[in-house]
């Protein structure tokens, strides 16, 4: 298991290194940069959507869902304040109160 973790760490490091190191001759074109700009939102959406909307394999859209309520509060606070600390504290505080 430790070998798997080390190999995955090496793979992750070297894939990042190829894109970030300045001396390497590897350059990404403008179309590829535009294509890659969608990868972070896509991955983050794939992470948060099942957490918020799915409960035991079924869609949970009622107001008693603490994940959904905290997410709605996070969206509102983020829109109003543009402050990541207030957003995190408000949504986590509500989530802890509801749980």
**Strand share of the residues?**
under 5%
Task: Give the tally of β-strands.
Answer: 2
Indicate the low-confidence ranges by residue numbers.
none
On the 0 to 100 scale, the average pLDDT is: 88
Helix and strand run: HHHEEHH
Tally of individual helices? 5
The coarse silhouette is elongated
> What is the first-to-last residue Cα distance?
34 Å
Helix content: over 70%
The structural class is mainly alpha
Q: Quaternary status of these chains?
A: single chain
**What does the main sheet amount to?**
2 strands, antiparallel
Tell me the strand order in the biggest sheet: 1-2
Indicate the radius of gyration in whole angstroms: 19 Å
Secondary structure layout:
Blueprint: H1 2-20, H2 30-36, H3 39-53, E1 54-55, E2 58-59, H4 66-81, H5 84-98
Antiparallel strand pairs: 1-2
Pfam family, one: AzlD
Organism: Pseudoalteromonas espejiana
Keywords: Membrane, Transmembrane, Transmembrane helix
Task: Write up what this structure looks like.
This protein is mostly helical and 99 residues long. It has a domain at 40-98. It is 73% helix and 4% strand. The protein has five helices and two strands. It has helices at 2-20, 30-36, 39-53, 66-81, 84-98, and strands at residues 54-55, 58-59. It has a two-stranded antiparallel ribbon. A hairpin with a 2-residue loop joins strand 1 and strand 2 (58-59). The longest helix has 19 residues, at 2-20. It is elongated and about 55 Å long. The model has no long low-confidence stretch (mean pLDDT 88).
Key traits:
mainly alpha; membrane; 2 strands; transmembrane; two-stranded antiparallel ribbon; 99 residues
């Amino acid at each position: 298991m430790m070998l798997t973790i080390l190999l995955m760490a090496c793979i992750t490091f070297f894939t990042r290194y190829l894109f970030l190191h300045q001396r390497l001759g590897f350059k990404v074109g403008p179309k590829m940069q535009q294509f890659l700009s969608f990868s972070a939102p896509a991955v983050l959406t794939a992470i948060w959507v099942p957490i918020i909307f799915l409960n035991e394999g079924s869609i949970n859209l009622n107001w008693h869902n603490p994940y959904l309520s905290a997410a709605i509060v996070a969206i509102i606070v983020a829109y109003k304040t543009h402050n990541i600390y207030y957003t995190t504290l408000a949504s986590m505080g509500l989530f802890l109160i509801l749980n």
